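Here is one chain, start to finish.
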Amino acid sequence: MGKKAGNVVLFPKWKISLEESSLQAMKEKRYEDALEKLDELLSYKVNHYEIIVGKIICLMELNRYNEAQNICEDMLQHKNDDYYHYLHIYLTLLFQTNQYEILMEQVEEELSKGSLPPLLEEQSKELYELSRKMKADVIIGENAEYTEGLRQAIHNENHLEQWGLVEKLRKSKAQPDKHTLSILKEEQIHPVVKTAIFQWLQESAVKDKVHIRKLGLQLKVKPTEVTELKKQNILKETVYHLEEMEQQNPSLMKLLNKILYRYIYVRYPIIPPSEDAGIIAHALIHIGKEYISPENNSITEPDALIASYLKEINLCESLFLSIIDE
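Its structure:
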């Protein structure tokens, strides 16, 4: 009995003819023709393993890897008798398209189940090891490119590009070189970029003492000995002094929290002394009042120390937003 597509019946002889002609087209490397015939068969629900695999092969030969990958992933979801055949094709496709991370995750998942057929297990482990080496080579190449790009961005004084490249190096877990450590004391480097570099040094467990200059301040310190930014006591202590503001205007307090974090971010790791937390809170309250009533002339002028922090907080807000878009 033939399968129907709409009101049309696919007769057995026509089905056999399509299958044979699609196979012949594949042998002759006429993949577009083969794909057209395979799609016609699939439209009639003739979707056994050979037809689906044939389509995957045609798509791969035509460099339509995304479509081939989508079919593999869909078939793996069914977990039918042909699961391990599709898995082998899928892993091969991932390797050919340099998707080493996904391949390694898939192999780890399959090995954890302990049910791979012996031959496929051996092949999967080989692909895993090759992927691990290829991934390492790719990372080394990318890091060299990022590092050279960072040097060029520093030479061109392109602060936004510098920050982006530092973030890429952090994400790839590259090891900072001596030149990176030395630029922390260069005045022309943007304070936000220096913060990103210092956090990168912390994540890389750099134990050497580094010299940092920013905002007219300087510090010599070992990155591993500095509390990470979000755990700095000055943040918690300043918020403590803003409890009344939090109760009166939660929305405004949310904004002031952001401004406070940006301020400490730009200064980091050169942190204001803890005893100034109350003064910083007063400066933030002054900023809050200006946000609420920008035209209000009755806002009292802050004293000299609060005014100094107010000026610095506003500067750091501008510096932060000039690099990081929130």
